[in-house]
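Supplementary Methods S3. Input chains for the assembly prediction are listed below.
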Amino acid sequence: MTYTQIGIAVVVAAIVADVFILRTRLVTRKGFWVSYAIVLFFQLLTNGVLTRLQVFRYSDSMIVGSQPDAGTPPFIGNGRIAYQPFEDLLMGFSLCLLTCALWIFWGRRGVQRTPMSGPPIWRTWAAQRRARTVASSSSVDSSGGTATTGTPSTDPGGSGHGQPPA
Amino acid sequence: MERFTYLAVLLFIFVGSAWLEIALRTRVLRRWKRLLLSLAIPFTLFVIWDIWAIATGHWSIDPDRTVGIKMGGIIPIEELIFFVVVPLASILSLEAVRAVKGWPLGDEAPATAPASGADEDTR
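Predicted structure tokens for the full assembly:
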């Protein structure tokens, strides 16, 4: 089998694992796709550097494109995107999806489900500033009362998911 | 210095994702048991694929741009680090998006009656 064929098979296998075996169904989650977009950007950047420098070289018969005998591969074209064979994107997606699906799988099984992620530290800082402002003006504002714990419970910005109440 | 090329890229990936643990409180490294369980299977499968692909000539890795330590005489140590650092970055990215946006990913605690077998982080 070529790298192209294996790459496609591995993408299918990762999706099957996510949907049917682990039943995590991350491919239906907006959060997964946004995070994959970030991963993809950095794959194009970092793997682009490595393939442009030919740290990785690929057999002509195993990819859709070809490996130049001399000089750098094209930025785009000849089966390549950002210097790397598009097959590398198949591998990268499978690795990302399988790993994330397993992470969610173990969380659902109760393995270190908590502490959940978030909130970002700047939201804590903002909440602390609000709390200080409230305290200095000596007015009673329930929204500032719990803010210093870093887990505001009614944050319209959406950080309230960060930590479930103990 | 050329031989540190691949290692330097791996360091960039690690540093470029690990800051999320602090700035966005992703709490991935802190949940290291769940992390190791999640990394074990992809690491094993992709390293086997990689060893096979190098051995059969699907791709090769420039000996001048790696430090020269090879496991089993086939797979450069950078490749093993790759299959730890990149999956770790994927999970950090996933949790970073959740930390900022709050979109559910399916492992949240049940809102009402506890699901069968599901428990908090005591295992």
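The longest helix of chain A spans residues 30-52. Residues 75 and 83 of chain A are 4 Å apart (CA to CA).
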